[in-house]
Amino acid sequence: MTLAMSWDEWTSHDAVGLAERVRKGELSAAELARQAAAGAQKINPAVSAVIEVFEDVVADPLKDGMNPNGPLAGVPFFMKDLGPTLKGRLQEQGSLFMRGNRPTQDAWLTQQMRKAGLNLIGRTTTPEFGVCSSAENPAVYVTRNPWNTDYTTCGSSAGTAAAVAAGVVPLSHATDGGGSIRIPAGFNGNIGLKPSRGVLSIGPNLSDITGYVSTQGCHSRTVRDTAAFIDACRGGAPGEFMPYWTPAEPYLQQIQRDPGPLRIALSHEWGDYRATPEIVAELERAGRFLEGLGHHVEWALPQADLRAAFAAQTTCYISNFAQVINGLLASRGLERPPADLFEPINIRIWEAGKDLRYTERFQMQAVFNSTARAFGQFFEDWDIILTPITAKPTPPVGTTEYLTISDNPDVHDWFDNLWQFFSYTPLSNLCGIPGISLPMGRQAHGLPFGIQAQARQANDGLLLQLAAQIERALDGRWNDGRRPGVHVTA
Question: pTM of the full predicted structure?
Fold first, then answer.
């Protein structure tokens, strides 16, 4: 296959840059799609990131309704195999039980993506139903980190993380229910923003009151790509339970200016959880870098009952997921999940949550409220809180204690073990506030490490503005300009 450009030229473009060349008539959407498909074929044997490429849309980008006049027109884009549905396309959610599942309608966000001009050309990997930390079930697939294939990408936006890091596409879909955008972004050297509530719709099948902690987003390699994606795709579907808001100016404009001096709090002591010394050192290094940009940085933490918050988060996951499984079982006339088609921890989550009383849900909601109020009060005094993306380094592939193929008989112990690792991301989902992972750190074994910034609800633009300031200060060289070993240019 003759490609439109060399791989070095391909990876020198971000999504905004590719769209500009399509607008000028220098490249076509079909040429870009063919290049991305070739990139997936090139790196997939090593990392198993892409499940399927839609060859018919590669050949004809307008086939499924892509808007050729959208701001990102012609940019090839992968969908995580979870969340927004694509009419007539498989969505199997990392699950043997969901094999052959073919939705009959586009989700609202899918429609927004098509209006933006994104060419939805395929699916990327995710763990079963997006529940665990990594897409690792040998019966389905094992997704590996392109920086070192002995290590995991983490998840649940596993395939997207690997595909963006390896240069296949500059921009790809991700979802986040407790860190699933930000954690794999942090371990793969990408930029990952979890937006506030009221930005990207999860309709029509869920709302912010039924999804609670779920949100949508993307991975990118430049701040302007993330800004462009949010600008183009934001907004609520008809009948949203909660209002959707619009910023005073588009993020693509806001990020062109540096923010004024910010009050930035640092923390790695998050309730019962603490980061390793190596990770604390990376956080401190990021803090000094931000001081060098003129910001005020010191140690501080919201005055919330974080132990109660994590317990409430666990209740939310167990109860919500159990009802999702109940719905799937009812649609097939089954009374319980078949053991040969569901991973063990997911069956235990269903067992723990299927009969949960409303009293427990009400108590959970009360803790959500008190935690969100405490974080809100904190942001009256601080603009940003900076944390590591995780408390521990990236685990090797096959570290089953964090996986839903684990044989742990106690689902609450399994979740507690998860929180000891993924300590810093879940509470922003609980509170509905934005968080972004930026590839500012490096681990001892050479893998990237993300530093997370969080802000008050609806201050997503400030996070992107700070990220853009950092990007300019680095001359665009995230990850010190390094590329992973598995890469389209290799």
Answer: 0.98
